[in-house]
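Example S7 (structure tokens).
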């Protein structure tokens, strides 16, 4: 733990990998491209799950579970879907020592198997809308992997809904997009851009795809969540029909949407610094860590008694941990918890006991500037208030960084330079060939088409033809 991290400014990729490993979020699995999520990292993921799941249930969604294995014929039913996922599929051909009559696909996403079940369950307009989410693992055979950001197997949630009308399904698609935005901003303290994906970037089989796009600490973009309007594509492929109020048979309109453990990587890369993680209080496994400081047994008794008083005062208000490990020095503990990104450290020593106080040290504000002595009698209120301030300040700091790294270039040369450092908001002609050329020449991709489009879109940043839309471009993970 005492080893220094590679500075972010020197090698951001190396810094990220070191933080994930040293903070014990995850480790490499013996299978290429897979990861082991360690308890601290899983606790962070569970807090992400809790924040999202609460929002899902508040909007009428319920959780279920669908099989890991999907018949290969299901994948083939939706042509665009199979074409999009074919290179990433993991396929099982032998089971129980026998050649399978039909190969099974290890779930890359569940539209097909859920479509099959919806066709059995939905009979009447009275069965609609059907709003189901599942928390699961999926497998996509990635060639280039990175812990949390892109792994062969990862954890996620995937929502799948069926509706009677196109309008209801489109409304659901956007509702879930904005739920993701609300979570990213208010829980993860990550400001995001929202918008529609271009045709070349949309989900395979969707009519429209939408995403939330965040900027990482190195200026690269990360797609942090997606929501897809599937139209009737999967309903027709899997015969998901219902009898309407006039007793006429209609195809359903469906949606799907998901956020994955990639969000853990986003939290690391947006907020971390050269000392390690900085976790937003709403997601931190421990919001507060108490470190007692003493030099002999006499001091130990008094200090630990005061520390336990603080723990009791904080109970029910925050997630607090008393680090009373005898085998480590206070300085070692400070470094350890800084690496792990605990938002607030509470220090209590013999002098603090005599003064009836404790010292609060903010993780996001280094050195003396982040420290403040507060009376022991009012520690609960002071800690809750400081955690709220940290949550707010992290968001504002991230928003400032995003805005300072978002440009509106006037020439293609300016555009090419801008996307090496962050987002470029630029007019585009709508031609997929022009979009592909931009990617080839600059390594930037279209992240989304923001909802706030200007009336006069000007001319395409690359080819000079009349622009159809203003698009957000960036190099991305």
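Recovered sequence:
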């Amino acid at each position: 733990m005492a080893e220094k991290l590679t500075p972010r400014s020197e090698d951001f990729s190396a810094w990220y990998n070191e933080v994930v490993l040293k903070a014990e979020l995850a480790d490499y699995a013996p299978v290429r491209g897979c990861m082991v999520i360690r308890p601290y990292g899983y606790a962070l993921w569970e807090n992400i799950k809790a924040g999202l799941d609460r929002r899902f249930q508040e909007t009428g969604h319920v959780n279920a579970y669908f099989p890991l294995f999907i018949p290969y014929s299901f994948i083939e039913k939706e042509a665009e879907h199979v074409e999009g996922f074919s290179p990433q599929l993991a396929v099982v051909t032998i089971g129980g020592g026998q050649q399978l009559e039909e190969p099974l696909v290890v779930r890359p996403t569940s539209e097909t198997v859920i479509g099959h079940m919806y066709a059995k369950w939905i009979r009447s307009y009275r069965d609609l809308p059907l709003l189901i989410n599942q928390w699961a693992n999926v497998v996509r055979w990635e060639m280039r992997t990175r812990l949390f950001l892109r792994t062969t197997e990862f954890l996620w949630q995937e929502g799948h809904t069926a509706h009677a009308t196109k309008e209801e399904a489109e409304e659901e698609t956007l509702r879930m997009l904005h739920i993701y935005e609300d979570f990213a901003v208010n829980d993860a303290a990550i400001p995001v851009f929202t918008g529609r994906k271009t045709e070349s970037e949309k989900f395979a089989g969707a009519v429209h795809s939408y995403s939330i796009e965040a900027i990482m600490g190195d200026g690269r973009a990360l797609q942090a969540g997606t929501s897809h309007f599937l139209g009737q594509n999967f309903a027709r492929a899997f015969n998901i029909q219902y009898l309407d109020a006039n007793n006429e048979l209609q195809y359903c309109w469906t949606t799907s949407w998901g956020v994955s453990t990639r969000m853990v990587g986003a939290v690391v890369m947006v907020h971390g610094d050269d000392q390690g993680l900085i976790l937003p209080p709403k997601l931190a496994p421990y919001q507060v860590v108490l470190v007692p400081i003493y030099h002999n047994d006499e001091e130990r008794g008094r200090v630990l008694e005061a520390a336990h008083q603080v723990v009791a005062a904080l109970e029910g208000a925050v997630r607090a941990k008393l680090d009373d490990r005898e085998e480590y020095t206070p300085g070692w503990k400070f470094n350890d918890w800084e690496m792990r990104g605990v938002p607030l450290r509470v220090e209590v020593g013999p002098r603090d006991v005599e003064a009836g106080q404790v010292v609060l040290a903010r993780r996001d504000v280094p050195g003396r500037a982040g420290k403040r002595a507060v009376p022991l009698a009012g520690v609960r209120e002071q800690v809750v208030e400081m955690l709220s301030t940290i949550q707010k300040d992290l968001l504002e700091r991230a928003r400032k960084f995003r805005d300072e790294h978002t440009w509106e270039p006037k020439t293609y040369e300016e555009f090419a330079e801008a996307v090496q450092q962050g987002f470029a908001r630029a007019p585009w002609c709508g031609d997929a060939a022009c979009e592909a050329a931009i990617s080839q020449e600059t390594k930037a991709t279209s992240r989304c088409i923001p909802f706030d489009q200007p009336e006069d879109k000007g001319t395409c940043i690359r080819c000079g033809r009349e622009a159809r839309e203003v698009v957000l471009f960036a190099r991305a993970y």
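Notes on this example. The chain is about 35% helix and 25% strand.
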